[in-house]
TrEMBL record:
Protein name stated in the entry: ATP-binding cassette domain-containing protein
Biological source species: Lautropia dentalis
Record-stated family: Belongs to the ABC transporter superfamily.
Keywords: ATP-binding, Cell inner membrane, Cell membrane, Ion transport, Iron, Iron transport, Membrane, Nucleotide-binding, Transport
PROSITE patterns: ABC_TRANSPORTER_1, ABC_TRANSPORTER_2
Pfam families on file: ABC_tran
Iron recorded as keyword: yes
């Protein structure tokens, strides 16, 4: 069951980025998808959410090929918060969140009383109720991210895919988001999130999938996969796994970036070379 890909090949313009990926996202758990930039995390989520058709192999949801479902049925099963959003002009947060109800609307496309209630509940839960009447194109990056998250949650799907949901959020909202994911999981949802903070992943997620260059590098519990060897191989840092004194969960401590690619050292700028300003 759950979400699976088997011998998946996917990419862009006929060029493969994911070459042969087989993995399963366990049902009813929080899975973190981690890996360096360009490792195909977003490509995998786009494939699973039918935004990017596979070049070969298969993707299944609850044991069925994802393309066997009607678009409406699929959008009631799975929702995606994409990494990049086109910010719509001139609409309010409340209107945007209402778009999340599209899979449930009647022929006339208007929100019913229940839809409106769900929109209000989701805005309260994501702390977007205080900006409900503001225009989305006039919000800060983090506020926009919360508005799009609210839209995704309004879709009320048992599978929730979040691509870098914490990137623009302040610390308080990051923690709130991790707790929201836990609450969704505890209500039976399957949550997948692309995260860059390994300690947030280790603390809040049940399962990790580690990718690099479009290939699977490891999968399992945070304790199993966040080993010094893996961190060196995948992230090129010298790091160790410890136990978090607060949560008792695994915690990654980076010792040094000795394995990191060296930044190129720029030559001295003009003001340092003593050149006169023009
Ligand atoms: P990640 O999310 O892990 O940072 P992506 O899945 O976005 O990585 O990208 C994986 C690879 O696919 C990268 O080499 C990237 O350049 C390429 N890629 C991503 N999106 C596109 C696109 N729309 N067109 C062409 N190549 C793309
Ligand atoms: Mg990405």
């Amino acid at each position: 069951m759950a979400l699976s890909v088997k011998n998946l090949k996917a990419g862009y313009g006929g060029k493969e980025a994911i070459h042969d990926l087989t993995t399963t996202i366990p049902e009813g758990k929080i899975t973190a998808l981690i890996g360096p930039n360009g490792s195909c995390k977003s490509t995998l989520l786009k494939t699973l959410s039918r935004l990017l058709p596979p070049m070969a192999g298969e993707a299944t949801i609850d044991g069925k090929p994802i393309y066997q479902m009607s678009p409406r049925a699929f959008s009631r099963r799975l929702s995606l918060l994409p990494q990049h959003q086109l910010v719509p002009e001139g609409i309010t947060v409340r209107t945007l969140v209402g778009y999340g109800r599209s899979p449930y609307l009647n022929l006339w496309g208007s929100l019913g009383k229940e839809d409106e209630q769900i929109v209000e509940q989701v805005m309260a839960a994501t702390h977007t109720d205080i900006i409900a009447d503001k225009r989305v194109d006039q919000l800060s990056g983090g506020q926009q991210q919360r508005a799009f998250l609210a839209m995704t949650l309004a879709q009320e799907t048992p599978y929730l895919l979040l691509d870098e949901p914490t990137t623009y959020l302040d610390l308080n909202h990051q923690v709130a988001l991790m707790e929201m994911m836990a609450a969704q999981r505890d209500r039976g949802a399957t949550v997948v999130a692309v995260l860059h903070d390994l300690n947030q992943a280790a603390r809040y997620c049940d399962h990790l999938i580690i990718m690099k260059d479009g290939a699977l590098m490891g999968e399992g519990s945070p304790q199993e996969v966040l080993t010094a060897e893996m961190l060196a191989k995948v992230f090129r840092v010298s790091a160790a796994q410890h136990v978090c004194p607060e949560s008792g969960k695994p915690m990654v401590v980076v010792k040094n970036a000795g394995l990191t690619e060296q930044m190129v050292v720029l030559p001295d700028p003009g003001w340092k070379r003593g050149e006169k300003a023009a």
